[in-house]
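Example record

One chain of 755 residues, shown exactly as stored in the release files.
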Amino acid sequence: MKKFSIQLIALFFISFIAISCNKTTENANEDAKKEGSHPKLILTKEGVDNIRKNLGNVPIFDKTLADTKAEVDAEIELGILVPIPKDLSGGYTHERHKKNFIIIQKAGVLFQILNDEKYANYVKDMLFAYAKLYPTLPVHPQTRSYARGKLFWQCLNDSNWLVYSAQAYDCVYDWLSKEERETLENDLFIPFAKFISEGNPQFFNRVHNHSTWGNVAVGMIALVMDNDELLDNALNGLKTDNLNTGMRDNDGGFIKVEGLRLGFFGNLDEPFSPHGYYNEGPYYQRYAMYPFLIFAEALHNVKPELKIFEYKDGVLLKAVDALLNLSDADGDFFPLNDGQKGMSYYTAALVSAVDIAYKFGGENPELLSIAKKQDRVVLDDTGLAIAIGIKEGLEKPFTKKSVNLSDGKKGDEGGVGILRSDNLELVYKYASHGSSHGHYDKLSFSLHEKGNEVLQDYGLARFVNIEQKGGGNYLKENQTWAKQTIAHNTITVNEESHFEGKFEIGTKHHSDLYFYDDKNPNIQILSATEVNAYPGTEMLRTLALIKDEDFERPFTIDLFKIKSDSKKQYDLPYYYLGHIMKTNFEFETYDQLNPLGKKNGYQHLWKEVSGKPADANTVFSWKNNDLFYTLTTASNANDELILARIGANDPEYNLRKEPSFIIRRKNTQNTTFASVIESHGSYSSVSELALNAYSSITNLNVVLDTEAYTAVEITTKKNTTKIFIISNKDNSTDKNHIIKIGNKEYNWKGSYYYK
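Predicted structure tokens for this chain:
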């Protein structure tokens, strides 16, 4: 019995050792599999092999690689610099840490493609420097942000750092030892990810471009480390955040809104319309597209079962097309809402967006023409696909046509229309507020020709990353001027901004599409209504871009119809750019300038000139970029015509000193502003000749204005007469209309008539 017991115990130990050995072998195999699976986010092993096989044979890729190598080599010569954070945007420490994350991401890519360990060593040394620094850091000393970071003054920039650094870590993951990885993850990456998520739920758990960066940062490092908990937080948000409804960020936007889905999926669901328009506007859509698309690519590679590029009917790929259409002839994004002028599809974020959309969106050859203009690609599988397509001559022109992009999660919260004809582009905004980056500018528009602004949208009041101007951040004038209604080409009533200039009111409402029609190549037209901006006042604005043989270039008809419950003051500004040529009205100048008003943006306008109409038509012409423009408007006898200039109450010169022509209509209940804007003629400084410098219009007359219809008649210098009629009550495309104006009867089908 004793002998049997000993044998049984011996057998048990042998079995235990065998099982343990098998488990050890399985774990070792799993570790080996895990360690041999990188890179896997943006670069892949198969992709790296393919890139190496094509090097020297894909010119745009080879050029980008050479430029990147030169840039990274120069930084390696400088050494590892990780200063103690102290500055706002534009300051040395801010820009140094920003440069670091950009360079180590590129160094990681160079290591994979060139197989040169000096780049891996650089990434390793930089990451270990941060692993040593990060545990010692308190929150950033600058207190401006609602969510302070550690490396940067806001968690947003900390998230930028982690999005890029995760890619660098992925590239050197297999090259590092297990012990080195454990140090980096325990001392740097996991604490970093938890700080911007659990440590800052007010930043991480919301729907906003800030949160998109935060979600993606945590998600990217989670994918590298195979950390399911962090990945779930990234995709779906924190389960518990203890945030109170009504909390605000620095721009006045709500942090917690009940009922919204959170995390990466929430930020895909809520801000994007079915057309791919992002409610914060193209400037922030451009900024958010990098994390959206780079994480989507990583999820596609690591979690293909999510089918992320098919999510919400492929909204991310639609968003790239929408964003490209939201740019002018030069590729600059239209500055809707908070938008800095000059931001364009040449930015690095759009290089990656175009490359990713091409690779995962069916290889649309039109995107190749944009990539060719950008003249660089992303150094990964997507950039290689672009480079091969360009080399093989597959590109087709990306032709921008008129487009009407819906706004809102379901596409039912207004929108943005771009009317295009020849070299003219008219941008009509009738969208939702646009989150905390929105402006109070319902039914506003801007006009562009050959990539130049003719009638401008001011954009934001900020000098991005210029330290001398408020640390490179938003200036107070963004609230007091740029967001106010009078700063835009739309109606201001009683010198009060739309929705009282209050975010909590404005964010509840949106304008509505009345009709849009681009079927006739000679008439591109969009009409929209706004009934909530001023209680008791309804507004209908119709803008049409018309090509007519009696005009040198396409012209714009602007009909702004107002119905109100009482008499009010209406101000309609046109923020023209250029030099005044001539007006047909006499005006009074002032020995001393005074602001046009005391608040709601009026305090920032100098009242330079005031006059009265001298005729039934007011004619205002100017020259800009060697082209002539004329605004002809049907006048009311009591209109006040104001020439104003931005810059009053601006002691620090934070605003641009640009002009405006304002039509003021006082003590009026229901009214219609009817105008035509022409582009005509040219001037040569070399020949010193001005050609066709005068308007083609001799008379503009509102011949009918009822609740049901509004009609304007245009008489030209060629003695031809044009009439434009809009149905104000019935926007049906199938409705037959018959009306009589004077002795003539007009019969048509649809919402408008022009002949």
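Notes: Residues 1-34 have pLDDT under 50 and may be disordered.
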